[in-house]
Amino acid sequence: MSIRAGGFVVINASKCTGCKACMNACPYGAIFYDEVEGVCVKCDLCMGEALCAKWCPQGAIKVRGFERSLRMGREDPEGRSILGGRLDRGYGEIFQGLLGGVGIVARILWNEVPPEVGPFDPGNKLIFMTGPLTGTIAPCSAKIVVGSKSPSLHPVEHSTKSSVGGDWGPELKYAGYDGLVVEGRAERPVYISVLDEEVEIRRATGLWGKGTFATQREIAHQLGRKVETLCIGPAGENLSRIATIQTQTGRASGHSGFGGVMGSKNLKAIAVRGTGDVKVADPKRFLEVCEYAKSLMVPHPMGGGGGGLGWTRALPDKRLLPFSKYRRRYFSCHSCPAACDGFCSVPGVGSGSEKCDGWFYRDYAYDYHGDGSEEGDRAFFHATLMANDLGVDCFELVSMIPWLARMRDRGLIDDDSIGLPLGRIGSMEFAEKLLRSIALREGPAGILSEGSARAAEILRGAEELYEALWFAYGQNQHDDVRSYPIVALLWAFDSRDPMIDTHAIRHLLVTRLLWPEPFGVKERERDAICERIFGSTEVADHSNYRGKARAAAICQNYSRAFSALVLCDWTVPIFSSPSTKDHMGDPTVLNGLLSAATGLEFSLEDLLLVGERIYNLERAQLVREGRRRGSDTLYEYWFSNPDPGGRVVPREEFEGAKDEFYATRGWDPETGIPRPERLRELGLPDVAEALSRCIKDPG
Amino acid sequence: MSEDLILVEADRCIGCSICKLICSISHTGAFNPKRGLLAVRKDLFSGDVLHPRL
Ligand code: SF4
Ligand code: SF4
Ligand code: SF4
Ligand code: SF4
Prior knowledge:
The complex is a heterodimer of chains A (699) and B (54).
Chain A: E1 2-3, E2 9-10, H1 21-25, E3 31-34, E4 39-42, H2 51-55, E5 61-63, H3 66-75, H4 101-112, E6 126-129, E7 144-149, E8 159-164, H5 168-174, E9 179-182, E10 190-195, E11 198-203, H6 212-223, E12 228-231, H7 234-237, E13 245-247, E14 251-253, H8 258-264, E15 267-273, H9 283-295, H10 310-314, H11 320-323, E16 327-331, E17 341-346, E18 350-354, H12 362-369, H13 374-390, H14 394-409, H15 415-418, H16 428-440, H17 452-458, H18 463-467, E19 470-472, E20 475-476, H19 485-492, H20 503-511, H21 523-534, H22 548-565, H23 588-598, H24 604-624, H25 637-640, H26 651-665, H27 676-681, H28 685-696
Parallel strand pairs in A: 10-15
Antiparallel strand pairs in A: 1-2, 3-4, 6-7, 6-9, 7-8, 10-11, 12-15, 13-14, 16-17, 17-18, 19-20
Helix pairs in contact in A: 4-22, 4-24, 9-23, 12-13, 13-16, 19-22, 22-24, 22-26
Chain B: E1 6-8, H1 18-28, E2 41-43, E3 48-50
Antiparallel strand pairs in B: 2-3
Bound molecules: iron/sulfur cluster (4 copies).
């Protein structure tokens, strides 16, 4: 160890034996042990220009005497040199052209999960997949894609996917793996630990029955390390069809019912710790693109700008604003500057994440207890924490609770028949009773554990009311399909709620028009963005179906492309940006990041072609499972019941747009099956062959 | 010895690890938060961010 000119204490790695004596002696805890090199290391202020302070999106890092250091840094630039490397894609030959994430998930499902396998069969696979940007500093790159046969989809339990953020995916990359595929079924409850090379299947006896919060803490304790953990709660253990896979206090793979799939495998959790490197081919260029991408996003509100939940601050919402007094900080996923997770502590209830889907009980709680009441605060947040702890999908509850209320009002159910205090929707007691019934399959309300779509088949007279709150496939609504033709079409062609990976388009066409600065987009700005992305502004004219089919296909190609990378669609500023003058985003950050990471040159068109390939592969799997043109539709309700503005989904126009869509896609318009020629052009010859057999049998 | 120190204001921190990523890529040529030369540890259950003063 020596003191260099300028006062930086540096460790001479070639002399360090890794004895850690300095680590123990340092009063500041400033010395770390580098497990890769086996030597001790410490902050050298980057020999001047402290990069962490420059890159921190919060301005949380300050360097005392920064100016002086900066000057010194220029005298000694070697400390800042960025070395080369290569990203190991390692997915093997069959995965060529699918990149990662949702592409690999689609390929594994096609290759390994035949139609006759049910979601809870041991033969079903549960796939966790990172992408080529996971673990890097690319903004919004924390998520993974989860794929499997879904128990929540209805009536057909189709193959589908979901995503989850936090820190688990990057940790898996640091452990040296791109993905993890779970197959079979353990005899008794187990969990998997991945500590770099050491992969073990361990008994989960003491963990079974525990909530997701306790499970994560207990596993970290058992392993004696800081680990990132994905786990299920009691809902998943009891094979609820609306069970989630959770991490941290509120991040979930939620809307596909994969918690039940994990439960059916007797798998409680997957804990990961990785200490390895993630390399990119051209670090210098990669950092430049990242810096540019970051400049299209605004810093988080704690730093003064707004981002993540920051927009809620500016909304005139009398219920959100008072609650923010409980917000202690914002948490972000790995390498995301947006921090959409508001961490709250409510006295007498507990601490955890507050996000949009966790608001499912908010209005009921305040209607029942009164605006601004502390009882309301407690009931609302208790419901949020409980759903996340038990591992129940919050988003399903957004529609399930009003549905129960309407059935009560029509006299279809009462307290005795359903076993819930229906007169007290909004109370803590109702939330507790409902969530326990779902998670533990307790009492008559235990049927709700099957998900609303299946419960509606069992409860007499409930189906009509059910359709008014869900759109299709047993999946409930985001934006009204009657008001937005593009949304109706995106729904018609997906396996599940398509909004999972199309927030970028939703923001552009729906939400941002209503949001305040800097998140708002004016109509004129929106039109300019549409011109750039879709080559026309037709997509933004919600009065008709003209041009929507083509636009839907473009949206789908984008969504598959960035879910292959894998980037978070909530914030990635590819369409609109809160920080440019005209709110114009830039889709070329996608191919820019990918090219710099892999060292292979991708144009935006190349990337969108990958998106199209993935979309077709997903479709092929759906077709094999029985999907045809006839099921590319919405529930009847939406064609016949007008919205407040008097609009329905116009059947003829809708079917006409479908014709256009199949033509754009190169699919057979009669059946909705991708044509073999098109699949071959897309580089999927084996899929083309298998599907030709389906065409002979049009379902 | 110099007075220069890295200070993390834990109250502002969102736990994104970007600091550790930029530090590791510039010092080792690879992204690896465990090799970042500053420690920011978030406890998602208590809401605390812990960091030794560097
Ligand atoms: S481990 Fe620390 S004390 Fe030991 S030789 Fe290395 S730098 Fe010096
Ligand atoms: S990035 Fe920050 S922690 Fe790392 S060496 Fe530079 S100043 Fe120190
Ligand atoms: S984790 Fe690091 S970069 Fe992120 S906000 Fe905290 S100090 Fe800043
Ligand atoms: S926007 Fe939210 S969910 Fe998306 S990466 Fe950032 S913190 Fe995670």
